[in-house]
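Repro case for the chain-ordering regression, as requested:
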Amino acid sequence: MHYLPHTAEDIESMLQAVGVEHLDDLFSTVPEDCRLQEGLDLPEALTEWELDEHMAALSNEMAVSPEYRVFMGAGSYEHFIPASVSYLLNRSEFVTSYTPYQPEMSQGTLQAIYEYQTLVARLLGMEVATASHYDGATALAESLLMAVRITGQRKVAVSSLIHPLYRRVVKTYFEPTGYEVLELPYLNTGLTDLSGLDEMDGLAAVAVQSPNFFGCIEDLKAVGEKAHDKDALFVSSFTEALAYGLLINPGSSGADIVCGEGQSLGIPRSFGGPALGMLATGKKYMRKLPGRLVGQTKDLDGKRGFVLTLATREQHIRREKATSNICTNNSLCALAAAMYMASVGGSGIRELALLNHDKAEYLKAQLKKEGFTIPFDSPTFNEFVVEFPPGFEATYARLLKKNTVPGLSLAPYYPELANHYLLCVTETRSKEDMDALVREVRS
Amino acid sequence: MKESLGTTGLILNEPLLWEKGKKGRSGFSLPRRDVESCPLAPELTGEGPDFPDLSEVDVVRHYTRLSQWNFGVDTGMYPLGSCTMKYSPKTNETQAGRPGFTGAHPLLPAGLCQGILRMMFELELYLAEITGMDAATLQPAAGAHGELAGMLLIHGFHRKKGNKRSKIIVPDTAHGTNPASVALCGYRPVPVKSNEQGILSVEAIFDVMDDDTAGIMITNPNTLGLFEENSRKIAEVIHGRGGLVYCDGANMNAVMGVVKMGAIGVDVMHLNLHKTFSTPHGGGGPGSGPVCVKKHLEPFLPVPRVVEENGRYVLSDDYPESIGKLQAFHGSVGVIIKAYSYIRSMGPENLKKASQLAVLNANYIKERLKGVLHLAYDRPCMHECVFSDKHQIDDHITTLDMAKRLMDYGFHPPTVYFPLVVDGAIMMEPTETESKEELDQYIEALKAIVNEAKDDPNLLHGAPNKCKVKRLDETLAARKPCLAG
Ligand SMILES: Cc1ncc(COP(=O)(O)O)c(C=O)c1O
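-- result from build under test --
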């Protein structure tokens, strides 16, 4: 096996140095009745070339661009990734290092993550951002737990237009804690109905997502004011980070904690993971943050350098009193996002976001023109809901056969929304793709 | 001694991103605009983030220079204990990078994603086989996330039985994530001490186990690199009082093909694919922390689960007792593919061989260094061994000084000051992918450092000398936090 460097002679001399005869003798402390007698029942080893063939066959069974045109977002977005980002991200000094516990030997990762934290803070309009979390959903769950810690209250109000799968993750995290999750319904404008908040007391947080699951842009200022009226923290979530290249950021709308998914920023979809949980807040809450933080410091000569810091919040110091159990996070995904943000730049991200918005508006207008209903009339970014006529399942199935995925059916998530589909258009869909889709759903 | 690996080359300085660039530059080929612009209401739009504008060359040089300040397994030996920094085979990167995998939307209809579903289904079977368990989930994103999943499974199990239990036993040698995961799930961790041999005694567990204890969380092999020899009997004690046994399987690299945890009383365990199964750690993740369970916990596994129906694979949500979801989608699929490739490349014999050689390498280091550094437990070890700075106290040299000096010799330092039960711990895990020559050179470096500690301690106090920066002031960073520029 070419990953194992030991020759028979090496093994022999090393066993001698250890003072045992056979490799099996190394396991003398494993009681006899704990040892496996038979071999593992696994497929025989493949050569590198056989593995290539096997994996190519699996990969070929997947529906992806350019053969397929997928008009589906819902928390996972197709965006162009510059070759420079993929190429740089493969530098093995980044890829094959561990969490930077020894900072002098890890300045590359540390400076890059410090830069990532800074760019994220700027994107979201906040003062500090963490080094990364697993994904947008766990970042939301951890944000809500953070709000509980800060306020000492045991209830959170969560918009029903937060991604349904994110809400399930929150439910899972909250289930054994005894904290309560209350849901805010939605209005027929496609925005969160905040009126129920008047009756809710003792809230740790009010959480909404913008653009929300229907693609609609929430009035974050109004949510923030309402949350603060109730002495609750305003938690602003997102699934499409690119939107903040264009939209007013949550920080300047009064958000106390901002959390979401950074996959759009240079990370391939990879069937949903690994993803990038982003979490940001103001300086006053920085010591309450879950997860790793990189900070600036000086070396013995007074030179600038970077280290993991505020570790007294973390599990390896505080154990059961830590602000989170997270250890390994999604650092390389954060690095990809930083490289992407640096490549696109301040001018580029705005133009790219505009293009996403404008393309989605084009498709929306074309569908409207053909008489399809756009049930929620609030402004959207690059996703929107369409109500197709009853029986659309057949059209959907026909389109799948023609290598087009015409959005996501909302009925499994919102049973009242039969025949409603969530469609997404990014910069990767051309006008021809959209025109073809309109032709197909019409016929 | 052979010439030291560590030397100083030409290390380039590189400013922060926003200290470079000029407005109007771009490192991105802006996609074609084939639709008209359609302005959004001004009250909804912001000014756009204050990012620097850089050219593609600016970006490429920036990150290339930064990467050169880093050290990875591909650079050299990385004996970071408890982290299993083995070589990450390159073919795994190629496999995970196939466009059918990277481009896949997580909510594709099952008929359009058979390749990934099949891969996930098979990997679950392989992991269950390696651990001797009955079923697995790939959803947890890392080891700690797997621990949380495991605690939730135990919680679900007891709740269904109608008994509220409030505590989990956690040995003092446990990784910090163990008590933190216990607490996150609303349980109180009950600490229990390891004995003078560094392992758990049946009596110690017997004394703390009661009807209000939901179970125990054992790391096996433990963080001292020792096999928990009493684990079978401990499991009997726990089961006898209605509790469940969780195994932190972060150290599975020692016992693949040697011990099946399912056969020695474990009910639920996690694996770290980014340790045992060779997926690279990426400077802090992404990882993957699959959880394997026995039959009685299977109904509680997270959804959706991949199931086979007449040779086709589908995702099923139909598990009413499930704990729910741990991530929005299906786990770190991009990482999972690499672990799958690794298992398929290794096959059953080489996986066992890997464990044997990992244990051989650790014991070799232990034997060759035990006269040089203080060995915390002088017993046969598994995949790692723990030393301390006890012999250096009179030289006023600490574990940290030795770790920093090791960098000058061209090695990544071992894990230091963990586990907490050994003062000044130095925990070395060479892994099986280091050759005898590498180990010998590492051993010689440590011997030289121990001599320097006596003869020229300032060399250690001032270390490292050959990195991009000198020793960094971590206290300053925490006292005056500067987390963004
Ligand atoms: C023994 C042990 N348990 C758990 C963990 C946590 O794993 P992760 O970092 O993947 O969350 C680690 C990793 O450092 C470990 O060494």
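Ordering looks correct now. The mean pLDDT of chain A is 97.
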